[in-house]
Amino acid sequence: MDMDDDACYRAFQMRDARFDGRIFCGVKSTGIYCRPICPARTPKRENMTFHRSAAAAQEAGFRPCLRCRPETSPDLGSWRGTSNTVSRAMTLIEAGAMDTGDVDALASRLGVGERQLRRLFQQHVGASPVAVAQTRRVLLAKQLLHETRMPMAEVALAAGFGSVRRFNETFQQLFDRPPAKLRRLGGAEIAAGDGGAASIRLPYRAPYDWDAMLAFLTARAIPGVESVRDGRYARTLAFGEARGVIMIEPGEGAYLRATLRFPKVQVWPAVIARVRRVFDLAADPAVIAAHLSEDPDLAPLVAARPGLRAPGAWDGFELSVRAVLGQQITVQAARVLAGKITAAHGSPLEDEAAGKLGLTHFFPTPEQLSLIDVETLPMPRARGRALVGLANAAAADPDLFGTRRSLDEAVAALRALPGIGEWTAQYIAMRALREPDAFPSADIGLMRALEGPDGVRPTPAELLARAERWRPWRAYAASHLWSADPKNPSEAKHAKAA
Hints:
The protein is an alpha+beta fold. It has three domains: 5-70, DNA Methylphosphotriester Repair Domain (3-Layer(aba) Sandwich), CATH 3.40.10; 84-147 and 149-182, Arc Repressor Mutant, subunit A, CATH 1.10.10.60; 280-497, Hypothetical protein, domain 2 (Endonuclease III, domain 1, Orthogonal Bundle), CATH 1.10.340.30. 44% of the residues lie in helices and 9% in strands. It contains 23 helices and nine strands. It has helices at 5-13, 54-59, 84-94, 97-100, 103-110, 114-124, 129-147, 152-158, 164-175, 210-220, 268-278, 285-292, 299-304, 316-325, 331-345, 352-356, 366-370, 381-396, 407-415, 422-431, 444-449, 460-466, 474-484; strands at 24-27, 32-34, 48-51, 63-64, 198-203, 226-229, 232-239, 242-250, 255-261. The strands form two sheets. The chain has a five-stranded antiparallel beta sheet with strand order 5-9-8-7-6. The chain has a four-stranded mixed beta sheet with strand order 3-1-2-4.
C-alpha cells in the first residue's frame, strides 16, 4: 500500500481493522511498535512513525507491543504482484533459508545480486532479509510464550534460535527483560518431547471460506495419512527423520488453530510454514477480489465466495505423485489408490491417539517409492514407470520441488520430469510452489465454467488469452472458476491435460 503518513495516522485513530497486517506504527516516546487495532490510546502524530512490516518497525529499533501483540496480526503477502523476487525470497526465508545461509546465498538462489535483493526488500517490505528472518523468530517465540506452556529451551528451538543463550540475549536486548518475564499463563510446563502437543493461533485476513477449504481437503484426503472429522483436518507429516501429527481447525476469531505434536521442536517453524502455505494464510482477499472483480464474468463468482483461497500442498513430491496417480481417473479413485500405495510402502505410525483419528501411516518418501516393482502397481505400466521415475528424480535431488526464479522456469523444470505435462506442471506450481499466477489453461473444469449460453467452451488458447487480464492472480481466478463448476472438483478427470 501507499505509505501516506496522514492516511496511516487516520487508520490508527479509527482503529481500522482493514489495515491490520498492512502497516505498523513505531511510537518514539515509548520505543514500541503497534498494530492499527491496538487498544492503547493513539499517540500524538509527531511521536509516530509508520512501517510496511513488523520487521521494518523492529529494524528501526522498536519492540513489539505487549497489548496488541504484533505476532498475532495477519502475515499478509502484500508484496505479491509487486515483486515476484521478494515474494519468492519471503517463501524461502519462511522455510528457513536464512537459518543455514546468508543474504548472498539467498540472492544466488533467486538469480539476483545481493545489493539488488536488499534494495527490493527495502522498497517492498521496508526491512532487510536478515531483519525479516530475525523478526519471524522473535514473534514466533513470543507467541509460543503467550499461548503454550512449553519449556523455555523448547520455545527457543521451536522458534528457530540456534541456542537458548542466543534466545535469552535477543529477548533481553529487545524487551529489556528475560523471556520468562513475558509468560503470563499459569500451570505446569508441557514438553513436546514428552508427547505433549501445543496449539497456536495462525491469523489471516478475513473473510476466509473454511467450508470450501475443508471440502477441497476432504475430497482428496489420503486414507491413513489425512483425516477430516467434525470440521477439523488432521494428518501425519514428516520432515526427514522428524515426524509428527498436526490438527487444524477454525478459531473463534480471524485465525486457524494449529495443534502440533512434533517431539523434535526444531522443525516447528517449517511445520508452521507448511500450514500457512496449505491453508493460504498470507493471501489478502480484498486486494485479490478487487482485481478479479474487474472482469464481469468473475465478479459474481468473487462476490459469491469472497473468502475463497487457493489451497497449497504439503509437499511437492507428494502432490506430483497424486497428480500422476490421478491421470485419467477420478479424484476419489486417485485418493483410494494413494491410500493403498501408502499402506503398502509408507512408514507406519505407532500412535494410539493418532490411530483414533484414522492416522496410521506417513506418505512414502521418494526413496521408498523408488524401490517399487512397477509390475506390482495397480495401474497401467507406463504410468507406474512414470511414478518410479519421478521418485528416482526426487531422491536424487532434494530441491527438485524448490522455489525457482520465475514461474516459467518452474514450469519448464517440472515438465522435464517423468509423467509431468503442462497441466500437471502448472498445477504443481500453483499448489506446491505457491505461484499465484500459475494457470492450467487446458483444464476441462476451467473451460466448462466459462461455457457460453450456446454451449460453446473456450479452447485452451482462448482461455489463456482471456486470463491475461487476471494477472498476477490467475491461480485465484482458477479457484473461483473451479468452485463455480457444477462438476467440481475440476481435476476429477483431466485426461490428456495432464
